[in-house]
Amino acid sequence: MAKVWVYAELNQGKLVATTLELMAKARELGDVEAIALGAGAKAAAATLGKHGAKVVHVNEDPAFDDYLAEPATDALASLHKEAPADLILFGFTTDSREVAGRLAARLGVGLISNAADLDAKDGGFVAKVPYFGGAKLASMKANSKPAIVLVRPKSFEASESGGTAQVKELSASIDAGSKRAHIVERVVEASEKVKLEEAKVVISGGRGMGGPDNFPLLEDLANALGGAVGASRAVVDAGWVPYSMQVGQTGKSVRPGVYIAVGISGAMQHTVGMKASKVIIAINKDAEAPIMKMADLGVVGDALKIVPALTAAVKAKKK
Amino acid sequence: MKIVVTVKQVPDPNATLTLEADNTLARDKEVVLDPGDECGVEEGLQLKEAHGGEVILVSMGPERAKDAIRKGLSMGADRGILITDPQLAGADALLTARALAAAIKAEAPDLVICGTESYDGSTGMVPPMLAELLGLPQLTVAKKVEIDGSTIKVHRQTADGYQVVEASTPALITVTAGIAEPRYASLKGIMAARSKEIKQIGIGDLGIERGESAETIEGVADAVARKAGVVIEFDGTAVDRIIHLLAEAKVV
Fold this sequence. Notes:
The complex is a heterodimer of chains A (about 325) and B (about 250).
Chain A: E1 3-8, E2 10-11, E3 14-15, H1 17-29, E4 31-37, H2 41-50, E5 55-59, H3 63-66, H4 70-82, E6 87-91, H5 94-107, E7 112-115, E8 117-121, E9 124-131, E10 136-142, E11 147-151, E12 166-169, E13 182-188, E14 201-205, H6 215-225, E15 228-231, H7 233-237, E16 258-262, H8 268-271, E17 279-284, H9 290-294, E18 297-300, H10 303-318
Parallel strand pairs in A: 1-4, 1-6, 4-5, 5-12, 6-11, 7-11, 14-15, 14-16, 16-17, 17-18
Antiparallel strand pairs in A: 2-3, 8-9, 9-10
Helix pairs in contact in A: 4-5, 6-10
Chain B: E1 2-6, E2 9-11, E3 31-33, H1 35-51, E4 54-60, H2 66-75, E5 79-83, H3 93-105, E6 111-115, H4 126-134, E7 138-148, E8 151-158, E9 161-168, E10 171-175, H5 187-194, E11 198-201, H6 203-206, E12 215-222, E13 230-233, H7 238-248
Parallel strand pairs in B: 1-4, 1-6, 4-5, 5-11, 6-10, 7-10
Antiparallel strand pairs in B: 2-3, 7-8, 8-9
Helix pairs in contact in B: 2-5, 3-4
């Protein structure tokens, strides 16, 4: 059996959702060992066991929470030296990819990034990587040992398989020289009402909204539907709305029951993060926009007129 | 302060992407300096203006990638280095990072600025690899940068706000597109850029070798496409049809 590692990302003591999605796939591919570092690692081990980890390597040194990327890279590299893995899985998240990149460079191996699926084949691993707006899927065979693969959030469904993991204390040798990029403060700016990733309905706005002043129209519709508001990279880059609202390759991946894209053309960067939604409704002034070709219903017209009319109709229906 | 900014030439994000017969992205169409890197250049220039020093642009790509460097030089950067070699064509992230690291190491900069990720690949793997190979701390996803002597402090964007991250220079930072509005090149800047140096180097100058690629592409398939639905004009029935869909999905 292949030895598969899952890097169990913790965010302030809590397991990041993508980790458990990775576990569901990892246990199909081999014997799973998870590595949990920082505050909450031991508590997370029980959950990881239920999701199929046979062993969980833990270490709660505060350095893992206080310093970016390098302490975790040290721990993974030293564990790999003792007992090498065949495959190391990371979520394609900001924190995980920074660790994965450093680890790959340190081990001198390549990696496969942004994978949407993964299978064992001929004693190795083949990842499916979407490109060209998700219209194409490339099958990439990993040539390195260990194979390092970063998987997009929401690629797999998390599920418990039952079981208890053996918890092993990872004797990490964190080099003092690795305590460098020091997190000295954490500032919370936005408190989301309904979490974008968990919302049943997501209404996202793009350049076609005309400007940040029109985003409250989307908020009104989201409130009426009990949903959340997202945005395209273009308007986040333009500073109209905060990054926390970005849906797409760089931002959040969502798969709600209904996704309403308003004034979004449907660039690959965006569609990769929302194409798995059950129902897609597009509102756009351009009938030829790529988003129209993937929407269940496309409405051609002025978003600033359509959205308020829709909000009123939803409110009337709910009465 | 010696500042290196990595820059990449990418297909114009505003142009429609097309595929070649072999399913690779057509990259010979309209190409531009990566908009994310433009912000990196701008941040480098602002730091130079505040603290003095030099801004060096480093890129890897075919010879025409000089145009991307030239754009940054016309904004005000001092000189450029282009790594170009047929042996580096189709390089994966690690080989790219190795080549960039070798070129950057020779400059011994105080600060390396990268975009968070490129507009075309969007994988964001080169900056952490580069930081590791250069032996530098990485301060990432910065939307604000402050330098005080040998201390660098960034606001690192997170899902719900930001972290304040501090380190000593030399360091590598990745910056978000929101960090600074790139300046337009002035006519004077464009003229001046023509005489600025762009040093061209090959794999032999860097002392690296092309090893095995991280992955072999076994095949390309069409992803399961969503069936196109109906497209209607916004008329008297459009809102009802949306409501009907919402009701079917049980959200109203």
